[in-house]
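hiii so um. not sure if this is the right channel but i have a protein structure encoded as tokens and i wanna go backwards to a sequence. like what aa goes where. can anyone help
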């Protein structure tokens, strides 16, 4: 199943993307699933049913959790998680509660992931391609494997309808629930879908 792992709705103050537009357009963008990852909130649960929608689209609720040491896409029982935890605290919490965490745009100049988080193994899954990154930031992220044992997935980081599905990740197996998604990610049953994303990795000089 093709998933966009990183999508912001209007619940995020910085986003212009309506939930109804996600529901309306995701399938025609080739997506089988969308993870809603608003900044520091899972309030999306008040507006939408998680899981398979009428047209077969799978909606999963997560969150982009902000810390001073980087931002993390987290999936798990985090509806009540307090804001303002450190990276170590939220990553430990994700682990303890059976959830999963992904370092969002780890090499973005603004809001990068502190290297120790990856070096010391607190987070082993990173966003290799982020739709809002500069190309060199994606290239740096995709190079992390040279020094660290990490795996890659990707997301659009959509804040507008135009961006929805610009980057996606292939998940092997059927995903119907948040637990399905967490298990698939934990077991490494995914691959960054690079078919349409070569542009995001080419050197900027080739523009
Ligand atoms: Zn934002
Ligand atoms: Zn984001």
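sure thing!! here u go:
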């Amino acid at each position: 199943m093709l998933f966009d792992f990183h999508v912001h709705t209007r619940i995020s103050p910085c986003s212009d993307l309506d939930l109804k537009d996600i529901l309306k357009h995701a399938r025609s963008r080739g997506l089988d699933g969308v993870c809603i990852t608003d900044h520091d909130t899972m309030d999306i649960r008040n507006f939408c049913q998680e899981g398979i929608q009428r047209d077969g689209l799978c909606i999963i609720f997560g969150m982009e959790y902000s810390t001073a040491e980087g931002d993390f896409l987290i999936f798990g029982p985090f509806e009540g998680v307090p804001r303002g935890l450190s990276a170590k605290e939220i990553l430990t919490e994700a682990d303890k509660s059976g959830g999963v965490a992904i370092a969002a745009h780890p090499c973005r100049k603004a809001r990068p992931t502190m290297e120790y988080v990856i070096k010391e193994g607190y987070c082993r899954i990173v966003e290799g391609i982020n739709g809002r990154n500069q190309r060199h930031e994606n290239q740096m992220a995709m190079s992390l494997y040279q020094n660290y044992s990490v795996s890659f997935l990707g997301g659009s980081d959509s804040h507008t309808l135009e961006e929805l599905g610009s980057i996606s990740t292939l998940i092997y197996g059927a995903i119907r629930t948040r637990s399905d998604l967490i298990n698939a990610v934990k077991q490494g049953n995914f691959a960054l879908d690079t078919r349409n994303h070569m542009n995001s990795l080419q050197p900027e000089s080739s523009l």
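oh and The two ends are 31 Å apart (CA to CA).
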